[in-house]
Amino acid sequence: MSDYAIDTEALCLSYGNKLALDHLTLKLPRGVVHTFIGANGAGKSSLFRVLLGFEQASAGSARVLGHDHTCLTPAQRERIGYVNEEHALPGWMRVRELKRMHERQYARWNEARYHEVIHHFDVMPEQRVCELSRGERAGLSLALALSQCPELLILDEPTLGLDVVAKRVFLDTLLETTVFDNDGATIAFCSHQMDEIERVADNLVILEHGRLRYMNGPADFCERIRLWVAAFPFKTPDIWQLPGVLQAQTIEGHTHLVVFDQDDSFGARLKLLGAQSVQTIPLGLERAVNAFLTHGHAGTSRRAA
Ligand SMILES: Nc1ncnc2c1ncn2[C@@H]1O[C@H](COP(=O)(O)OP(=O)(O)OP(=O)(O)O)[C@@H](O)[C@H]1O
Hints:
four-stranded antiparallel beta sheet, ABC_transporter-like_ATP-bd, cell membrane, Rossmann fold, membrane, transport, P-loop_NTPase, binds adenosine-5'-triphosphate, alpha/beta
């Protein structure tokens, strides 16, 4: 059995002249919650669509749960759950009928789990799917996907458009049901909400322009990005000549620099450039990710200064 739930090698996807995935090589171990972040258009959904067979890769290869993604058998597909922001379920069906259909379709269907999950949402078996609110539909999608007992669960912005309460219920249910029951499932979770990422992430995968920009634990990421605050009593030097600068701002006469992968010698460099006082402050995940993505977003890093 492959150690990787998702294993891509130089995977490319182009839409006309646009390269949505650009030689993406990604090795995602099993049994972990991998969170995907990246600016709009970074290629997150494209990656999932290729892995699920909705799009054909232009080049490269991908294995899902150890199998070539281009020739997954129905039994192998059953082991992959997918929920995206659309929660596209047949509106005309009653919840009860839809549940029965899934029950028949999935060999590993877990009825007790379905009831455990759906119980968190105000969904009645006799309701038609089109009558459900967006949050209720999201809950139903989650219940169906979790009850199929997938080995890999792909969640592509599943809480988009939900209110704060519905978002919390969705995440609480996901964490209670899957992560803590130790059934070894792998989750690929994509979101733009850093509070959600922070709650669920074991591993952070940052995509940029269809390429892998960063992969490691969120704590490691925050350790590598620091805020330096320096006071230059005379002329502020060109701080962009310094290594690792992601963002620069002047606030009340102090230069604030968000810096990637620099140790304490960065402070010494600032002093050499004339800084009178230098201070370093750790950053939270949201601010660190924000600086990282802003820097990678073509043409915006210097505007942030
Ligand atoms: N059907 C399509 N036809 C043409 N271009 C597409 C199509 N789908 C995606 N793209 C392009 O591929 C790139 C990656 O899109 P993708 O939807 O994968 O990004 P994303 O990271 O999921 O973005 P978001 O966070 O906004 O959902 C974008 O530049 C997008 O314009």
